[in-house]
């Protein structure tokens, strides 16, 4: 499985090295680091990686999570905590079928002290939480080990049919377009936009759209903009009784 592990803003070289080792142990090799706060090739990191030093050297560095996820078709966030305003994290075993059917999944891990922030988790279609005792915050590399273990098991079982899902970049561009359209038609405002879009993202992410479906949706958004601009140009309100673009274009 082409599974990427994304570490968001890790602070401790030893944790990055240990995470690389955990990946190699479990059979993952694509390490991505977003805005690191230390040198991921520090001697401490290389020492903790042991035989995974090459994997560590091959890590790719990104400045934003969005860039790190651009080519992925599924992003799974991880969190030690429940967040009041986000969907509850799920047990990793329940998410395994979704990951096994993805062509290019990513697992996203947060900084040691704070974990992922809400805007990071919003870029993940689903969040998992490893069940623990009362002290839920695992060491970063140990969390990488357990989540990779969960998702990389059963590789010898018959391969599931891989889904063809839009990349995260296509979905993020679609959400940007949706937000612009919401503002354009006054569906939301600057204060409520974040919450509104979060609800729409959750709904549309569940649909696991294909690239073609994301383009279909954006075609609809383009038509909404065209209609609003056209109505504004005529000094009228866009309404259901107006003629369609096709008819009007044909009349010109
Ligand atoms: N104090 C932070 C924990 C940071 S631990 C918090 O409360 O969220 C660093 C990272 O390890 C987390 O961002 C998450 O990616 C992972 N992690 C730690 N404990 C986890 C758990 N129980 N389940 C899933 N991921 C966990």
From TrEMBL:
Enzyme Commission number(s) from the entry: 2.1.1.200
A single BP term in Gene Ontology: methylation
Key word Methyltransferase present: yes
CDD domains listed in its UniProt record: SpoU-like_TrmJ
InterPro entries: Alpha/beta_knot_MTases, RNA_MeTrfase_TrmJ/LasT, SpoU_MeTrfase, tRNA_m1G_MTases_N
Subcellular location, record wording: Cytoplasm
Enzyme class: transferase
Entry keywords, A to Z: Cytoplasm, Methyltransferase, S-adenosyl-L-methionine, Transferase, tRNA processing
Domain annotation tRNA/rRNA methyltransferase SpoU type: ranges: 3-149
Superkingdom of the organism of origin: Bacteria
KW Cytoplasm (keyword) present: yes
Pfam families with a match to the protein in the record: SpoU_methylase
GO MF annotation, one: methyltransferase activity
Catalytic activity: uridine(32) in tRNA + S-adenosyl-L-methionine = 2'-O-methyluridine(32) in tRNA + S-adenosyl-L-homocysteine + H(+); cytidine(32) in tRNA + S-adenosyl-L-methionine = 2'-O-methylcytidine(32) in tRNA + S-adenosyl-L-homocysteine + H(+)
Region of interest (Disordered), residue spans: 232-252
Basic and acidic residues bias locations: 239-252
Record function comment: Catalyzes the formation of 2'O-methylated cytidine (Cm32) or 2'O-methylated uridine (Um32) at position 32 in tRNA.
Quaternary structure note: Homodimer.
Family: Belongs to the class IV-like SAM-binding methyltransferase superfamily. RNA methyltransferase TrmH family.
Protein name, UniProt field: tRNA (cytidine/uridine-2'-O-)-methyltransferase TrmJ
Organism this protein belongs to: Deinococcus hohokamensis
Taxonomic path: Bacteria, Thermotogati, Deinococcota, Deinococci, Deinococcales
Gene encoding the protein: trmJ
């Amino acid at each position: 499985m082409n599974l990427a592990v994304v570490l968001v803003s890790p602070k401790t070289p030893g944790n990055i090295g240990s995470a690389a080792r955990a990946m190699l142990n479990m059979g993952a090799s694509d390490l991505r680091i977003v805005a690191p706060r230390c040198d991921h090739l520090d001697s401490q990191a290389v020492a903790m990686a042991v035989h995974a030093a090459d994997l560590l050297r091959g890590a790719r560095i990104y400045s934003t999570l969005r860039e790190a996820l651009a080519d992925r078709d599924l992003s799974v966030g991880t969190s030690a905590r429940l967040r009041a305003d986000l969907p509850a994290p799920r047990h990793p075993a329940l998410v395994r079928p979704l990951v096994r059917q993805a062509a290019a999944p990513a697992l996203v891990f947060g900084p040691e002290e704070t974990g992922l922030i809400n805007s990071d988790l919003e870029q993940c279609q689903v969040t998992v939480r490893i069940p623990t005792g009362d002290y839920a915050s695992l060491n970063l590399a140990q969390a990488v080990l357990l989540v990779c273990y969960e998702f990389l098991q059963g590789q010898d079982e018959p391969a599931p049919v891989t889904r063809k899902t839009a990349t995260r970049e296509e979905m993020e561009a679609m959400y940007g377009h949706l937000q612009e359209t919401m503002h354009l038609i006054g569906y939301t405002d600057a204060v409520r936009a974040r919450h509104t879009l979060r609800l729409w993202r959750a709904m549309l992410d569940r649909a696991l759209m294909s690239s073609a479906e994301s383009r279909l949706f954006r075609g609809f958004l383009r038509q909404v903009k065209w209609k609003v601009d056209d109505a504004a140009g005529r000094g009228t309100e866009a309404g259901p009784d107006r003629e369609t673009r096709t008819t009007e274009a044909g009349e010109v």
